[in-house]
Amino acid sequence: MGRIKNLLEILIVSTRLGLSSFGGPTAHLGYFHEEYVRRKKWMDEKGYADLVALAQFLPGPASSQVGIGVGLMRGGVLGGLTSFLGFTLPSVIVLIAFALLLTSYDVADAGWIQGLKIVAVAVVAHAVLGMAKKLAPDLKRKAIVLFALIGTLIWQTAFTQVGVILVAALIGFLIYRKHTETETDETRFPISKKIASFCLLLFFVLLFLLPVIKEVTGSYWVAVFDSFYRSGSLVFGGGHVVLPLLEQELVPNGWVTEEEFLAGYGATQAVPGPLFTFAAYLGAVMNGWLGGLFATAAIFLPAFLLIVGALPFWDSLRSNRKVKGAIMGVNAAVVGILISAFYTPIWTSSITQPLDFALAAVLYSMLAFWKLPPWVVVVSGAMGGILISLL
Asked: DSSP states of 3-17 as a string?
């Protein structure tokens, strides 16, 4: 009975956060700190900082992984799953409803849809500049950014991002292998190494076997699961980086149009919760509400497996300077990938006339200078798109 009560409390608190956490991953971490550390006192400051550091180190949606980690610390694997569901489902439900509305009424050419595409321009521009300052502060990492940008623009294939990330990891390993930071004391996490090892093994088995199974069986559903799972597995540096990975997986296959893709990305900015719930919208456009839930499970599964698998090994891993160097290189490459995605498909398909650029500049200013909430920017973008269509 006590365990059920504990899980119910995790669900209530995480759902409240899922309904109110606007503003992206950094804001989410602030909401989590206020709720889990200061109010509920489920974790102390150091334990929370360690968990955030681990989530930043792993691929996947950092804020979601921190939320899962808090649930794991509080209620084991079921607690992690409960925390994930509470934080994620509110935005999943809203985005599936939006997708069904979009497909039912054929509003892809409406002015407000163009406005949402321009919102994506402003949001990604803001993300690029913010991440560049943090992840590429020195000339060596700026050079890695340039390499990733040129590579992903010239060779636009499904494997380019993976190759760029691997090369950047090698460069970072070689350049920063002697990089030192202040070490912290050991932290203990309540996950057995046996469970953790199984999760890590399953993560890699799915990553490498799903493409094989897709080719052998020719199954549409395996292909869809593989695309979303692989996108969720290879995202370093924040949820915005999932944009180019998903775009190259879905649009060339004809599963969604570029207009549907960018309209949904703009709408995702208006809802609370993690950006990865963009997958719910895409899945629903492709296969209705069931497809939305299917895509959501596929894209978040790597994050869940990795956070459960990495917790017991985190202390020894973060003390390895060579591993840190590889991650520094990967994070810099992520900035280059983002800039490439910002140019195509976002800029090239959204900014088609001077008025579009003017609206994008206004929306960017609202985000970067006036610090307005994302939902205000999204609503303004939709209204601006309608106004432009009438002129």
From this structure: HHHHHHHHHHHHHHH
Please, what's the b/e burial string for 227-242 (b: 16 or more CB within 10 A of its CB; e: otherwise)?
bbbbbbbbbbbbbbbb
Residue 212: exposure state from Cβ atoms within 10 A (0-12, 13-18, ≥19): exposed
Average pLDDT over residues 67-87: 92
Residue 31: band (very low, low, confident or very high) from pLDDT cuts 50, 70, 90: confident
Question: Which residue pairs, CB below 8 angstroms and at least 24 apart, start in 181-189?
Answer: 181/324, 183/319, 184/46, 184/49, 184/50, 185/46, 186/315, 187/46, 187/47, 187/50, 187/314, 187/315, 189/72, 189/73, 189/311, 189/312, 189/314
Q: How many CB atoms are closer than 10 A to CB 376?
A: 15
The count of other CB atoms within 10 Å of the CB of residue 163 is 13
Phi and psi torsions of 237, nearest 5°: 95, 5
Instruction: Domain ranges for the chain, please list them.
Output: 111-390
> 372 pLDDT exceeds 90?
no
Per DSSP, 60 falls in state: S
CA–CA dist 264, 200 (Å, integer): 32
Give the mean pLDDT of 87-99.
93
Mean pLDDT, the chain, integer:
85
Residue 248 in tokens: 């190259």
CA 151 to chain centre: 22
Structural tokens at position 273: 């919760």
Residues in Cβ contact with 263 at an 8 Å cutoff, skipping those fewer than 6 apart: 102, 108, 113, 116, 117
CA distance 253 to 158: 11
Distance (Å, rounded) from C-alpha 224 to C-alpha 210? Answer: 10
Tell me the per-residue pLDDT of 313-358, one tens digit each, with 9 for 90 and over: 876 666 677 777 887 888 788 788 778 878 876 788 789 999 999 9
